[in-house]
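Exercise 7. Given the encoded structure of a 107-residue chain, write a plausible sequence.
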């Protein structure tokens, strides 16, 4: 699946959630979405801990895959909401990291 396909699907699902939340009487703000993401990252942390034997959990690999996908979904939604060209920014960030690493290695 290409990036644009992932982004389109993430936005479609976010729109479905928006409709559901309207029916329930409350829509999520960007801050609510971010708070949900923080919860997802916390869940991801617990799963990683379980992966390394620090917690007990069933179906660790399945839960890890699910939580990573959830986190990616929120990142895609937030990038869209804030008009961030994520592929461009990702490349820029990776280039900056490469430069930093090379600088540190040459010291």
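Solution.
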């Amino acid at each position: 699946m290409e990036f644009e396909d992932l982004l389109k699907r993430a936005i479609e699902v976010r729109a479905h959630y928006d409709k559901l939340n309207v029916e329930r009487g409350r829509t999520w703000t960007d801050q609510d979405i971010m708070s949900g993401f923080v919860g997802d990252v916390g869940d991801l942390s617990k799963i990683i801990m379980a992966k390394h034997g620090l917690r007990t959990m069933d179906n660790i690999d399945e839960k890890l895959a699910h939580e990573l996908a959830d986190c990616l979904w929120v990142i895609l939604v937030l990038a869209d909401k804030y008009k961030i060209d994520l592929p461009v920014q990702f490349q820029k960030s990776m280039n900056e990291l490469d430069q930093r690493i090379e600088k540190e290695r040459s010291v």
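Remark. The chain has a mean pLDDT of 96. Students should compare their own answers with the one above.
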